[in-house]
Amino acid sequence: MHIDIPPPGEARTILPGLRWLRFPLPFAPHHVNVWLLDDGEGWTAIDAGVANDETRGNWQAALTGEAFGNRRLTGLLITHFHPDHAGLMGWLSAGHGVTPMMTRIEWLQARSLWFDTGEEMLEHQAEFARIAGAPEDYCTFLRQRGALYVRSVSLLPRAFTCIADGDVLRIGGREWRVITGQGHAPDMACLYCAEEKVLIAADQILPRISPYVGLHAGEPMADPLGAFLSSLGRYRDLPEDTLVLPSHGEPFRPLHGRLDALDAHHAERLAALEDACRAPATAHTLLPSLFRRPLDQGSLGFGIGETLAHLRRLEAMGRVERLPGADGVIVWRRK
């Protein structure tokens, strides 16, 4: 299915009562898709974009132009806590008198990160990087960079409406079933309409790349890649010809082929990383087994997080083991 990409502030119609907005981002992947669902009196928006003046301007153009067709914003659903999705949640909520819908874990994660900006948090992140083998200059960079989340997210609302996996939302005469996904985010909400065979897939299923799946300092013993791969199975029961509406990239089919590709991609990366662990190595040392090009300081944290997520998956599968050193730095070795 090919539909021309909408310019910022304009919309493209996917189906009657379903429209596509796209807003630029100041970081990769450089855009985010927002979906509008006709709910009778107005439009329910799926996601809000990042909090910056450019996105606010694009929202104003959409709200006052043909995208909304002289109708108002009457609902808001945020798929997950990341800034490119939740950044303007508070701004839209306050400006239009709507209470955002969100899974409880994603809501609490957003609230937690927005208020966690002190030096203790920065030191905790730096120590997490250090024991992963990152060089000291990168740890210093983390301490000096400051808290990122609050820079890209407007003041959050104090109330939300909780949604959960399996809930059925009736929006504009259509039923949308909530299917949650894990790994990229702790409890991301996707929406499936059986009547139209349409899946609003958020970041769970992207057309060309795998979403970022990384281990983070707040839950260092988690298995996010295991959670991601397991939750992909929830979408296997949907029809193969489901139209997938991702948060990044363009609408696509087929669904099952993309699920197969994501499984194969991570299986290949796990095998490469396991092979690289023939000799004990830190997560930082192992980066080249997953990333072809050197990572700059701005992206090194994502690289370490993703490498650690794959190492934790291998550890949970019994294929590698961790060996903490006297200085706390962890090396990994194949069993």
Describe this structure in words.
Helix content is 34%, strand content 22%. The chain is an alpha+beta fold and 335 residues long. It has a five-stranded mixed sheet with strand order 1-2-3-4-5. It is globular and about 65 Å long.
Question: Main traits of this protein?
Answer:
335 residues; alpha+beta; five-stranded mixed beta sheet; 14 strands; 34% helix
> Main beta sheet: strand number and arrangement?
5 strands, mixed
The radius of gyration computed from the alpha-carbon positions, rounded to a whole number of angstroms, is 20 Å
- Percent strand equals 15-25%
Mean pLDDT: 96
Distance between the termini: 46 Å
Number of helices: 10
As laid out across the biggest beta sheet, the strand order is: 1-2-3-4-5
The H/E string reads EEEEHEHHEHHHHEEEEEHEHHEE
What is the count of β-strands?
A: 14
Low-confidence stretches: none
Q: What is the percent of helical residues? A: 25-40%
Q: What is the global morphology?
A: globular
Structural class: alpha+beta
Protein name: MBL fold metallo-hydrolase
Pfam families: B_lactamase-like_C, Lactamase_B
InterPro entries: B_lactamase-like_C, Metallo-B-lactamas, RibonucZ/Hydroxyglut_hydro, Sec-metab_biosynth-thioest, WH-like_DNA-bd_sf
Domain Metallo-beta-lactamase: 31-248
